[in-house]
């Protein structure tokens, strides 16, 4: 690793600013946090800092969104999960925050207010400009060391992510370190054959990943499922039906069909498409070959034959990268494809999952521990898998180069 980690620093007695990503789905009426995965994943880092004074910096959502809210319930959630008191301060870098930190003792945990309440945190900036913001200057005065554990935000070039590492010694937290290690292994050191399962609705991301991993010889094969599968079927010239076409159009992905065609032209042997699909007919699941898809009803899942052949491909893989479901799994009649592929991938030697929906299915099936790694990043994981250097990682490396040695 070209950046520092918790092993490289002495925490004792220090005030440690820790950037985490507790951004989570919240029920708009009850304000209840609906998924605590990101909390659970950051806990090892927070525990590892217990010899210091821990000051947590995080965001929740973005300005203008319904779930852009204060962090009182986040502090309560963390307190319950970590079994230690967590003091919530409704301030980011003002006098109240300064005073609260000044009187902290080693072992205590404090959570600052939603850092995106400060307008500067919502700007995309170069690290050198981010370092000059009030937010970075004032926050950095409040600690001795910065720990960035927020992998979920690692693709954002925002002040706390890229600015603070320029002005104070910064190391990666345990989650950040594990995410980078596991995702890096996909492109170097993972057992072959390497199969990418690309599904769900984020077609532009999936096409970018497919292009990168095929072009660079990272993937041996791609299984295209969900709406991504429909795009590839359309690219192959299949009549996927009006509703599935309309969905692609409404998501703004019609232009991706040509990109899928280009991928098929170069890597036809490595991209596996559905051979059969499932639709709803008279209220029930019905299956058709892709040569005869009914034109007036949407594709909702893989057909059983395709499930079987994709499961075989998965079972013969050394590595699986799973991103996005095979169908509208929220409806039990159309969950078969997703569930069967998830079950098969759990048995593979090295298995990495990106994407909230896929991870939620895995957790619901109780298969979390059978997978090698469930990433906490959506966008960050995708950017990593498309070969981009994440701004947070570049900032960690530069900080270590400057302050670390
Ligand atoms: N054929 C399909 N038609 C419509 N929606 C689909 C289809 N296949 C999958 N989906 C939907 O994709 C959604 C998840 O996609 P996405 O957000 O990209 O996944 P992830 O969060 O795992 O990255 C699910 O809500 C599921 O219903
Ligand atoms: O949840 C996040 O991203 P994700 O939904 O892509 O996983 C991060 O907290 C980043 O949030 P942002 O996309 O509002 O910058």
UniProtKB/TrEMBL annotation:
Picking any one GO molecular function of the record gives: phosphoglycerate kinase activity
Q: What is this protein called?
A: Phosphoglycerate kinase
Indicate the family of this protein: Belongs to the phosphoglycerate kinase family.
The main place the protein resides is cytoplasm
Species annotation: Methanocalculus chunghsingensis
Q: Mind telling me which PROSITE patterns this protein's record contains?
A: PGLYCERATE_KINASE (PS00111)
Cellular compartments annotated: Cytoplasm
In terms of Gene3D superfamilies, this protein maps to:
Phosphoglycerate kinase, N-terminal domain
Q: Catalysed reaction(s)? A: (2R)-3-phosphoglycerate + ATP = (2R)-3-phospho-glyceroyl phosphate + ADP
Residues bound to (2R)-3-phosphoglycerate are 38, 116, 156
């Amino acid at each position: 690793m070209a950046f520092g980690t918790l092993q490289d620093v002495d925490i004792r007695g220090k005030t440690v600013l820790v950037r985490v990503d507790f951004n989570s789905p919240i029920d708009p009426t009850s304000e209840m946090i609906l998924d605590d995965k990101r909390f659970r994943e950051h806990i090892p880092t927070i525990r590892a800092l217990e010899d210091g004074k821990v000051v947590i910096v995080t965001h929740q959502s973005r300005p203008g969104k319904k779930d852009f809210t204060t962090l009182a319930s986040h502090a309560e959630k963390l307190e319950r999960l970590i079994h230690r008191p967590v003091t919530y301060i409704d301030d980011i870098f003002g006098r109240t925050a300064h005073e609260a930190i000044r009187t902290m003792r080693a072992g205590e945990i404090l959570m600052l207010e939603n850092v995106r309440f400060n307008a500067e945190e919502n700007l995309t900036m170069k690290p050198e400009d981010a370092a000059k913001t009030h937010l970075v200057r004032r926050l950095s005065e409040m600690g001795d060391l910065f720990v960035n554990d927020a992998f979920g935000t690692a693709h954002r070039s925002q002040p706390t992510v890229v600015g603070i590492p320029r002005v104070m010694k910064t190391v990666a937290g345990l989650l950040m370190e594990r995410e980078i290690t596991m995702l890096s292994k996909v492109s170097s050191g993972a057992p072959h054959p390497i199969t990418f399962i690309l599904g769900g609705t984020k077609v532009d991301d999936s096409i970018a990943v497919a292009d990168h991993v095929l072009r660079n010889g990272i993937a041996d094969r791609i299984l295209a499922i969900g709406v991504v599968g429909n795009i590839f079927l359309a690219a192959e010239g299949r009549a996927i039906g009006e509703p599935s076409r309309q969905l692609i159009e409404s998501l703004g992905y019609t232009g991706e069909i040509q990109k899928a065609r280009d991928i098929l032209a170069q890597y036809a042997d490595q991209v596996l498409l559905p051979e059969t699909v499932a639709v709803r007919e008279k209220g029930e699941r019905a299956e058709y070959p892709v040569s005869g898809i009914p034109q007036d009803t949407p594709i909702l899942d893989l057909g059983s034959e395709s499930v079987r052949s994709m499961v075989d491909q998965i079972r013969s893989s050394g590595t699986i990268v799973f991103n996005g479901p095979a169908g509208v799994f929220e409806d039990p009649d159309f969950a078969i494809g997703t569930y069967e592929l998830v079950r098969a991938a759990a048995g593979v030697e090295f298995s990495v999952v990106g994407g909230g929906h896929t991870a939620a299915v895995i957790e619901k099936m109780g298969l979390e521990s059978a997978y090698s790694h469930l990433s906490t990043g959506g966008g960050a994981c995708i950017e990593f898998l498309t070969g981009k250097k994440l701004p947070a990682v570049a900032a960690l490396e530069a900080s270590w180069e400057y302050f670390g040695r």
